[in-house]
Amino acid sequence: MQTYTYRPTGPVCSRRISFSIEDGRLHNVSFVGGCDGNLKAIGKLVEGADAKEIAAILRGNDCGGRGTSCADQLARAVEEALAEGA
Description:
Layout: E1 2-6, E2 14-22, E3 25-33, H1 36-46, H2 51-58, H3 70-83
Antiparallel strand pairs: 1-2, 2-3
């Protein structure tokens, strides 16, 4: 199982996103910083889900007109990991 760490860019509250991908599925998604309860919920909701599908669902999610969000940053992180061959 490959583990990835991503540093969000743009005006988001989380400072780091970590996750694993195994057989195209997301595992152990966690955030440092941000809205703790909401981000823990995202981690639970995406556990074991298809990484490509989750990236497509979360991509473009906006937080307060910032143009991005912690969920959007997770999508970007997953897309990068998949492009690297995850």
